[in-house]
C-alpha cells in the first residue's frame, strides 16, 4: 500500500493527559501498519511552550518523521504536512491525515477498529472519516447544527444536499484519506485556507455545470466522539462559525462571479454583474440572520 500517514500532534500537547497520549501512540502504531515511519506534524510554538517535552523525550520519537512548523492553529498544520509529502514523496499515491488530539472517544474498541480500517482505505478518490458526538447539545454538535449546516445550505444548497446524501454528517471532519493526485489538484489550483480544509475541498470537488461530484467520494463511519458542554466553549464556537461563514461567502463570490467573455459586450456584462451582486446581497443578509440565531442558541445551550 503506497500511502503516507500524517498525524497532527496535539496543539496543546498531551502533558498530564494520559488518554490523549494513549490515543496518539495507538494511532502511530496503526499508521505503522501501512508505513514504518509515519509523519508527525509538530507546531513549533507547542515545542517552545514546553508542551511537547514528554513526546520529544520518548524513545519512540526516533521512529517517526517529525516535521516542526510554524502555524496559527492546528488546521494550518494540515497544509504543512501535505506540502511535506508532496515535496518529498512524489511517488506516494495516498495521504492519510489523522488528528492526534483525541481524548474523548466513546465505545473505544469499535472506534479504534473503524479507524484502523479507515487508515487502510484505498478505494475512493477522497475518503472522509465520519463520526457522531452522542450529544446534540455539545459544542461540536451545536457548531454544525446552527452554523455549518445552515450556512452551507444557504450558500451552496446543491452541495449541502449531496453531502447529506453521501451520507456525511461531519463535513468539517479532520479524518481525511485522499489520493495524492487529487490533493495536489485541490491545493495547487485552488484557493487555500488555514482552516476548514475538508469543507473547502468538498466545495471545490463539485462540478457546478453538471451538478455532481468531480471525484469519487466515500464516507467511513468511525463511531462517536464525546464533547463536554461548557460555557467556556462559547467563544471558540463563535470563532468557528464566523470563519465558516467567511470562507463560504468568499468561495461563493469566487465561484459565481461572472467572467467577461469576448462574445459579451460591456453593457451586458454589467447587467450580469448586477444580478450577481444582488444575489450575493440576498444570501449575505440570510447568512447574517443564521449567524444571529447561532449566537443566541449557543448562549442558551452553553449557559453563557
Question: How is this structure best described in words?
Answer:
The strands form two sheets. This protein has an eight-stranded mixed β-sheet, sandwiched between helices. The protein has a domain at 3-135 and 161-228: Spore Coat Polysaccharide Biosynthesis Protein SpsA, Chain A (Alpha-Beta Complex), CATH 3.90.550. The model has no long low-confidence stretch (mean pLDDT 91). The protein has eleven helices and ten strands. Strand 8 (206-207) and strand 9 (212-213) form a beta hairpin. The protein is globular. Helices cover 51% and strands 16% of the residues. With 304 residues, it is an alpha/beta fold. The chain has helices at residues 18-31, 44-48, 53-57, 74-88, 108-119, 139-155, 157-165, 180-188, 197-204, 233-256, 266-302; strands at 3-8, 39-43, 65-69, 94-99, 105-106, 126-132, 176-179, 206-207, 212-213, 217-225.
- Return the CATH topology of the domain at 3-135 and 161-228: Spore Coat Polysaccharide Biosynthesis Protein SpsA, Chain A
Which class of secondary structure composition applies to the elements? alpha/beta
Oligomer: single chain
* Total number of beta strands: 10
Please report the first level of CATH classification, the CATH class of the domain at 3-135 and 161-228: Alpha Beta
Which bin fits the share of residues in helices? 40-55%
Order of helices and strands: EHEHHEHEEHEHHEHHEEEHH
Q: Describe the main β-sheet briefly.
A: 8 strands, mixed
Helix count equals: 11
CATH homology-level superfamily of the domain at 3-135 and 161-228:
Spore Coat Polysaccharide Biosynthesis Protein SpsA, Chain A
* Strand line-up of the largest beta sheet: 3-2-1-4-7-6-10-5
End-to-end span in angstroms? 49 Å
Uncertain residue ranges: none
- The fraction of residues assigned to DSSP E strands is 15-25%
Global outline: globular
Average residue-wise pLDDT: 91
Gyration radius, to the nearest Å? 20 Å
CATH architecture of the domain at 3-135 and 161-228: Alpha-Beta Complex
